[in-house]
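Pilot study result, target chain (266 residues):
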Amino acid sequence: MVQNKKRKRTRNGEPRALIHLLHVVTLSMAVWSISHAYIIISTTEIDFSKDKYFKHAFENKEFLFSVWATCSQVIYFGIYLLIDVINISTKKSEQVLKIRETLYNAANFFLFSIVFPLTLITSFLFWVMYFWDKEKMYPKQLDMFPFYLNHMMHTMPLPGIILYMFSHVRKEPNKYKTLLPLVVLLILYNECVFGIRRRKGVWVYPVFNFLTFSQVQVVAAITMITSIGSHFLGYYLFNILKGVRLSVVQRLKKMEKTSALKQKHE
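Predicted structure:
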């Protein structure tokens, strides 16, 4: 009879080494994408001070929505990597378990309140405006950024966040409690964008120069509404993923039982 060795698993039942690798890879990609973009900007030979289209955008790059979204992803992925470090480097105790549970709850709350809505809206708005008018949204001057970097900031994060939602979240936080931080953040962001316009007379986004002030206000309002809508969409998506995960887990358990019975009779 062959003994079936159990693999080390997380509290949620996934192979521990695979989950650790996922945390390292996703955090590394988020950090690398935003740092690589800043390195390219700071080392390029292009003098953006002479380019009216880009001068103000690069002076206020910290207020780009995609930068805020990427920073939220870094924080979110970083929380799970911190949990890994705690699991590996500390002995199990009541205090450690409480800290770990607090971090799990914080990550889940942050996912539904900030990370998923910002990630979804960043991807959606960028590609809608990109296909609407590529030259205005992504003119030739931006070819200095490699194509893969653009996808790493505007395309790849969304599947990664959905993967985390599928594999890590067991119970979603209250949807109305997570809505408040998102609304506060959106108000703060709009205040930053319009505040820069009032103080400096420039827009953070060069594409806004092709719109009237009223049109920019409409875009801001649509962004807020769609962001709030994406917040509730996150909960709807999670319920679908939860059903899929339950089906997958049941099937895997059935396969394990079948395999164990075969090995027992060998």
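One observation from the pilot: The CA atoms of residues 166 and 244 lie 9 Å apart. A full batch analysis is planned for the follow-on phase.
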